[in-house]
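Subgroup meeting minutes
Present: P.N., E.W., G.H.
Scribe: E.W.

1. P.N. recapped why we're keeping a running log of single-chain structure predictions: easier to compare across weeks, and new members can see raw inputs and outputs side by side.
2. G.H. added today's entry (717 aa).
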Amino acid sequence: MSTNGQQDSTPTSAAKMSRRKLIASIGLTGMALATGGNVTQALGDPPQGSPGGTNNGVSGKGGTMRKRNGNRFLTATVTADTIDDLRDLAGVSDGDTVMITSGGRAGLFRWDSGDRSADCANDPLMGMYVPLNGNNGSGGAFIRILDSEITPQMFGASGDGTGDDSGAINAFFAAINTFGLRSGKCVGHFRVGAPLVAQLGAYKGLTMDATFTSSFADEGYMLSITNSYRLNIVGKLALIGNGSTIATRTNGKGLLLDGVFQGSITKIDVRQFQHNGIEIRNNTGFSSFLRIGEVLTYLCGSAKVTGSNGISANWSNRIDAGGSSLPNQRSTITVDTLPPILDITDYVSINGNPYAVTNVDRSAMTLSVYPWIDIGLNAGTLDYFVGSGIFIRGGDSSGVSFGTLNTSACGIGANIWALYPGEVQYFSNESCGIGYILGRAPDFATVGGGIGTHYCENCAVNFLKASVYGQGSFRIDSTVDQAQGSKHRALSPRDTMGAFSERYLLMSGLRMGAAYGYETEAMQSASAPAGFSTLLLRLGGGGYPVHSIRKDSATIRLQDVSGLRTGFGHNQMFLYASGTSATGAPAGTLTFQPQDSGYTVNGSGAAAFSNLAGPTMFHCYLSGTAWVVQQAGGPVFKAVQAVTSVSVAAGDSHTVDVSVSGAAMGDFTQSSYSVHIEKLLMSSAVSAPGTVRLSFYNPSSSAVTLPAGTAHIRISR
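Output recorded in log:
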């Protein structure tokens, strides 16, 4: 023990009395007298209302204090090594000050003889209020004089990645709210052996460069920040759970932000959790808005894709419920494996298609999923897409704005169940089961929001629209798929033939900008019946949407939804169709049909297009109840016709009529023949709608034999 920085030099007895015993035996005043009564002038007053403020009858700040005693002033600054030394003091009176010098708990304390039992009860780790040994604070306490922000180290945290700092961290968070502090500072690597809870109150600020590493097992949240209106966190907050694989992880979820709105967070880094890395709930009120500059989530949940680790199961005993083409349909299956933290926010993949989990019965080992499973499948294997890098939920969890959102090796990158999903300037998802889910399956859509740049690599599904209803003007400005083969998809109920009744819904109210490497299509099945190839295009979503399909044969059912609440727009769209033929064209027939009774397509019940010469753009628009579908330029279609051998007289012609669906008067035609036709001139023209006439003319003076061969016809307009 020393006063004014002078070390004790008086020899002790042979027993070497300890400093704590010395302090206790002669008291604080005695210590000041033993050093010759050295005094130091006060430097000023602490803030009103803060611990140690002038309303407590004591003035001073920094490293010195002075005590009022009538007209006399007696000042003395005594140093002590630890909080335990401080608690051993005797003979203290109002205004006496002591400087703790060692470790993170160092600081200046002032004695207040009033009843501080309530404050001491709220501060059991004595970061702010320190009673004497054997007293609960009713006889007074030392109060920390703050000349800067409080820290977890003041409550005993080491901040060096060793031990268990959870108690000190929780005490730090509690003190900010309980004692009405506006800010705190949390810097260090903290190993924690229990969940952390921060209920900070309104208008608070945290300066952070903190990494919290778990040393405990719990399926709940590692850190919960709740009821913290206008919270601003400057710096990095990192949470690291236990276990690098899904089988070895012992922490359920990472960070919960519940009721945190109109605030901002600079950076969040969350890794290695069984389920969700970050959850944002109840972010509502006062035109709510939460800004997060940068988010990184890694190994949160399970997805069995390359670069990640996942959980599979065998399933059987399929039972279907609900109605055809209705969102109430479910398939219930029995499984042999259930992840411990699987819930109804998760998905499974069966036969390459994603399905929303709608119910989990652990006692019966069953799952219910939406929509119905592929027709004809009654048993097999499935992969779980469990947990999300970030999950946002709430009827009005509005306006969450991300600068950069990076999700890697998660079950689902971003799972958005919020009415207002907010904005992501740059979104990158790698090795996730599903990159981004918009809306809750089957019937909760979102309003507004969008993604600036969406980069995808090695995900089973890049983007999934989960609701059957049209999204309210969600947009993706630009997309890049490194693998050039992943999909944007939409969930919708099936009909009794296994077809998705509303299966192509990157549709109403959802716009995509420039894309690289994408096939934007709905779910497919390797073993689907013919009826499976039915698409539904719904208009009225705003703008001039362009959709892309890659199918050899399909029935496209056109529906007008301009009267529904799906946004205002034009009743027209463009459909870009490609297939597996050598030229990239659909190898079969594309048939356009009206979805609504009383509507026609090109004057009849359907319009069919086949023999396409290459990938083709179709323009579909509505005039009253009449649909018009026409090819919008470029290669149109082609035809192949076998021709038998025939003799063509001098000056005569031989004609062959070829049926070509979609050919119209005035179309340009080109034709060729598979073998050499000496002295004969070949030509072609559309002679009637749907018919191309080939002509072989003999201009010579003698008969010429037309050899058997194959005529190739190409039509464009």
